[in-house]
Amino acid sequence: MTQLLETTNLTAFYGDFQALFGIDVSVQDGECVALIGSNGAGKSTFLRAITGMIPAKGQNVNFGGQNVAGMTADKIHKAGMAMVPEGRRLFPSLSVEENLLIGAAGKRPGPWSLDGVYDLFPDLVAKRHNPGTALSGGQQQMVAIGRALMSNPQLLLCDEISLGLAPKVIKDIYTAVPKIRAGGTAILVVEQDVGQAMAVADRVYCFMEGRVTLSGTPDSLTRAQIAAAYFGSNEDEEAA
Amino acid sequence: MVWINAILQGVLLGGLYALFAAGLSLMFGVMRFINIAHGDFIVTAAYLMVAFVTGWSIHPAVAVVLVLISLTTAGYINQRILLNRVLGKDILPPILVTFGMSIIIQNALLEIFSADSRRLPAGWLETGSITISDAISIGWLPLMMFGAAVAVIGGLQLVFYKTALGRMLRATSDDPEIVPLMGGNNAHIFAVATALASLVVGIAGIFLAMKTNFDPSAGPARLLFAFEAVIIGGLGSLWGTLAGGIILGVAQTLGAQIDAGYQILAGHLVFLALLVVRPRGLFPKM
Amino acid sequence: MTSVDMTKTPSANLSMVLRLFLLAAVAGLAFAPWWAGRADLRLLMEAFSFLALAQMWNLLAGYTGLISVGQQAFVGLGGYLFFALAMFTGLPVLFAIPLAAIATAVIAIPTGWIAFRLQGPYFAIGTWVIAEVFRLIAAQISALGGGSGISLPVAIAKSLADSRAGREMVMYYIAFAIGIVSVLLVWGLLRSKWGLALTAIRDSEPAAEAVGVATRRVKFMIYVLAAFYTSITGAFVFLQKLRITPDAAFSLNEWTAFVIFIVVIGGIGSIEGPVIGVVIFFFLREIAADWGTWYLIMMGGIAIAVMLVDKRGVWGAIKARINLSIFPVSKTLD
User: Interface pTM (ipTM) of the complex?
Assistant: First the structure.
């Protein structure tokens, strides 16, 4: 398997506040990798840094053979990374179908098209002409995912897609993951739902306070290890 | 009967005001940006038209194309180089930069063309009319202006709702932060929006040149009319802007019917009155 | 936000030096009728007028976030109401001026209520429309000269003092007072509890509301206050000119464009800014006296440049590097 994405010692700041302290994460071609961790651990910040939403000049983000750190977000999108943003962020002035079509603005060759997305999420067909935001939370999430797929990305980034959704809906949406992988796209999910992340990922990284505290395959990690990496061990808490 | 004629003339005048306003409405819709120099750009287009046709004896049809190309290109470049740098949450820089631009343009026009008022002779267009009765007649020029307003707004609606570019413009209006994640280049998109608005400004300027005498200081008044038409009609709605233009035009002509000196005042007062009772306008979309 | 380095005592000393320098300048100016020629006195009167207008515009835009391009409405109202009062009621000039201002403040209440129905840049243009309405109405009032305006009867001007020198001195001190008081007024306001509210509103209106600041009421009060003081200045300006016309009274260029340039170049959101701005503005005007339209083109260019390079203006740029303050408003350990 070839290396698709690799970050080396990635740092990120919001003004004076440092949010990431040297992150090393990699994703292989066709893999599904999950980033878990509590609120504010830096997972979404990581996604924003690699997609160009926050400045990352001078950093090392190797994607498909080139260093995309410091490139503008639209160029990174064209290079083959597509984001399903936190909170979905559909365009209210656009219909469902138009939201999907706009995802194809930076289109690359590949299997995904309007029909493909409607096959993946049949619920959307009846709603295709509704305004993007006049849908249930789960359906909006489907549109957001479909919108990102329309550009045929090599790497799909999913930022907290389970946020605000009922468990059954989350399960339904995650059934799409194998089908997306079958199309050749690698997936990087940021998830607060640890169970769901472990169920779908080949490898997992755990973030805490801007650092990677644990990584490995789901089978090789114990609950205790994960809890410690997620919340921090007792010794660390006393020292802090 | 004279009142019916006044209303009719007001409706047609509204077409011109809608043309003034459409570009302003577009820029605010996509970028939340008010260009205080908007009226001065319209006057610039008018001066260019006069310079091409009377100064350089260029055929009017060719001059129209030249003016439109000049305005559209200038609009794109200006947005890309200058105005993009002041877009953001702070409302002061865009206001001040465009205010500065307004002063510069007015004085540059004064320097180049002098303070004499100008007009573009339009021959049969400005004198010809359709007579409906002895009190009511419709001039060709006002009719053309109104037709142009409807065509322009219809055209803009088409672009916005039926093209990929329009999709991108609407998306940028909704959520400019996410647009780059879809592969959209905001700097370019904003400039295209301004270029489109400048095209409309060019059309408005050409009609202005034919309709009235204008001088370098005529810009601000046009900005105010455009602004009033947009607010009356409701932010975010182009057809609303047409309605706003018509209401403003009718208010002005009715005011003029009472007393010639009341024309502009009547327009302002109706605008303020509507602002009191319907602050969001008639057909607001945002 | 950059942190304040408490060890920068040299700046505290420098601030004190600047304050003393300013006090000396003010003291010198207080005796201007004795050392300045007629032309210079007129220049100083103009400078004080613009200082007052600039302080008020800065109060609106720099502290309250209300960007108005229609303050000329209140300059004109002040002028016209003063003329009307002085001519038709026989009130002495020194009563007519404040009364005209009070009347303007009363008119500002409904106009403000209308203007406040708009936000941001739309509010700005709305204030402009309102100013235009007043201009057009003034042009219709034949008792005040209609479109061609009216001159102040000689008797009223002469009522100030017997000699021309005396009159010039009285007018100078009115201007002096207007200018100095404008600075003290803004300074006092910002040091009061209203000042805290204003700074909160300037930093973040939603946050200010969330902690209980009655933002709309505060903004409205500032709007009316600015109208009041702007109209006092307007009344004086036209007293000095001895003649008023609708176009001069409600001129966008004079009472808004120049004022905005002064505030923006000097430094918006500070009391020192408008002071510096007035100095720079008159300096540039002296240099560019013969340039005609190029002078205005230069002003426009400078305004754009300031916005692009450092929108905090001269004082803001200085203050970012050295912790200076001539008019301290913040309650910190300096």
Answer: 0.92
**How many structural domains does chain C have?**
1
The 8-class DSSP code of residue B54 comes to: I
Residue range C69-83: average pLDDT?
97
Give chain C's end-to-end CA distance (angstroms, integer).
18
- Of B173, B178, B183, Cβ closest to residue A89: B178
- Residue B199 has a pLDDT of 97
- Tell me which residue range forms the domain holding C115: 32-251
Spell out the SS3 assignment of C41-78.
Answer: HHHHHHHHHHHHHHHHHHHHHHHCCCCCCCCHHHHHHH
CA–CA distances in Å: residue A8 to residues A13, A22, A61, C94, C294: 16, 7, 7, 75, 55
CATH of A3-88+154-239, one of 1.10.287.130, 3.40.50.11540, 3.40.50.300, 3.30.565.10: 3.40.50.300
Gap between the Cα atoms of B217 and B105, Å rounded? 9
Burial track B199-211 (b if 16+ CB lie within 10 A, e otherwise): bbbbbbbbbbbbb
Residue C334 above 60 pLDDT?
Answer: no
Q: How does pLDDT run across B191-216, given as a tens digit for each residue?
A: 999 999 999 999 999 999 999 999 99
Q: Is the pLDDT of residue A1 over 70?
A: no
Residues in A 130-189 with any Cβ partner in B closer than 8 A: 147, 151
Model confidence pLDDT, tens digit, residues C165-197: 889 999 999 999 999 999 999 999 999 888 888
pLDDT at residue number C214: 86
For chain A, give the mean pLDDT.
Answer: 90
Long-range contact list for C215-223, CB < 8 A, 24+ apart?
C216/C116, C218/C64, C218/C194, C219/C64, C219/C65, C219/C66, C219/C116, C220/C112, C220/C113, C220/C116, C221/C194, C222/C59, C222/C60, C222/C63, C222/C64, C222/C66, C222/C198, C223/C60, C223/C64, C223/C66, C223/C108, C223/C112, C223/C115, C223/C116
What's the gap between Cα B63 and its chain centre?
A: 19
Question: How does residue B104 score in pLDDT terms, banded at 50, 70 and 90?
Answer: very high
pLDDT of amino acid A235: 47
The whole-number pLDDT of residue C5 equals 58
Tokens for B112? 């180049």
Distance from CA of C306 to the nearest CA of B (A): 9
Domain edges within chain B:
2-277
**Helix pair angle (C38-58, C272-287), 10° resolution:** 140
A-chain residues within 8 Å CB-CB of B186? 74
Choices 1.10.3470, 2.60.40, 1.10.357, 1.20.1540: CATH for B2-277: 1.10.3470
Shortest distance between the Cα of C107 and any Cα of chain B, in A, equals 15
Residue of higher predicted confidence among B243 and A107: B243
